[in-house]
Design goal:
With 55 residues, the chain is mostly beta strands. It has no helices and four strands. It is 0% helix and 42% strand.
């Protein structure tokens, strides 16, 4: 997992290894902007993503 803090931007990044086939090797990124809003992006299949991720 990578944690990056720069001018109040927070970025969390993870790659899933050894999980179920639907998510194994896929990436998930959580980003928080300076105004406190979070967003999620992932290259996992839509059925495997959390609700709101890549919305």
């Amino acid at each position: 997992m990578v944690f990056h803090l720069h001018r109040k931007l927070v970025l969390l990044f993870a790659q899933i290894n050894g999980g179920p086939k639907a998510v194994s090797g896929k990436k998930i990124t959580q980003t928080r902007t300076s105004d406190g809003q979070w967003s999620c992006s992932s290259d996992a299949d839509a059925a495997a993503k959390s609700k709101g991720c890549d919305a």
